[in-house]
UniProtKB/TrEMBL annotation:
InterPro entries referenced in this protein's UniProt entry, alphabetically: Fumarylacetoacetase-like_C, Fumarylacetoacetase_C_sf
GO biological process: oxaloacetate metabolic process
Protein name: Fumarylacetoacetase-like C-terminal domain-containing protein
Function: Tautomerase that converts enol-oxaloacetate, a strong inhibitor of succinate dehydrogenase, to the physiological keto form of oxaloacetate.
Domain called Fumarylacetoacetase-like C-terminal: residue spans: 34-211
The keyword NAD appears for this protein: no
Similarity remark: Belongs to the FAH family.
Lineage: Eukaryota, Viridiplantae, Streptophyta, Embryophyta, Tracheophyta
């Protein structure tokens, strides 16, 4: 092979690396076994609620059947009858790259495959009733389509996950806006903490928390 041809082939290979990384990151979601949410993990959200800043993470689980994947064929968020009032929380999602169990915080970022933008949708009716009765939040969190999620961005494409601004609009109206630098428990700590309790599998998603106060809306809105 001539040096000129070798150089051309090398350039072509380098040019495809970002696309290959993006495709590999996106494939991770197909292997997902669970969604782990970190509640009240932003200082601004704690202030909105009038709550003290947490000393330890509050975790909850959502099934992968709640995913609403981004794309041209994606439908609207489904609102099962007789539910009316929904609560939206825009969050940075962390996608795990491989099996993780009892991971030290110092090496936790080695288990991150990529990031995505996600919504943690809740039914106000069901969640409030569960909280009042001292019951788990499950019924208000696990409905189909209650976790809309974007395409996965490879970890290599985001140099600093704490230098991101997340915002959400509904029908053009700004409802949420916040910075990931406001995160209380950072990503390495969350991975280490969660993996000390349960095994994280390839493709599992960690919702890192709601950035700020989120308003409610009634009836069905297409995002």
């Amino acid at each position: 092979v001539s040096p000129k041809l070798r150089k051309k082939n090398q350039s072509s290979t380098v040019a495809t690396l970002p696309a290959m990384a993006a495709a590999a990151a996106q494939r991770l979601l197909a292997s997902s076994t669970k969604i782990v949410g970190a509640g009240r993990n932003y200082i601004s959200h704690a202030k909105d609620l009038g709550n003290p800043v947490l000393k330890e993470p509050v975790l909850f689980l959502k099934p992968t059947s709640s995913f609403l994947h981004a794309g041209p064929t994606a439908g609207p968020i489904e609102v099962p009858e007789p539910l009316e009032s929904l609560h939206h929380e825009v969050e940075l999602a962390v996608v795990i790259s491989r099996r993780a169990r009892d991971v030290p915080e110092a090496s936790a970022m080695d288990f991150v495959g990529g990031y995505a933008l996600a919504l943690d949708m809740s039914s106000n009716d069901l969640q409030s009733a569960s909280k009042s009765a001292g019951l788990p939040w499950t019924l208000g969190k696990v409905q189909d389509t209650f976790t809309p999620i974007s395409a996965v961005v490879p970890k290599s494409a985001i140099a600093n996950p704490y230098d991101l601004e997340l915002w959400l609009k509904v029908d053009g109206e700004l409802r949420q806006k916040g910075l990931t630098s406001d995160m209380i428990f950072k990503i390495p700590f969350l991975i280490s903490y969660i993996s000390s309790i349960m095994t994280l599998m390839e493709g599992d998603v960690i919702l890192t928390g709601n950035v700020s106060f989120s308003c409610c809306y009634t009836a069905v809105l297409d995002f």
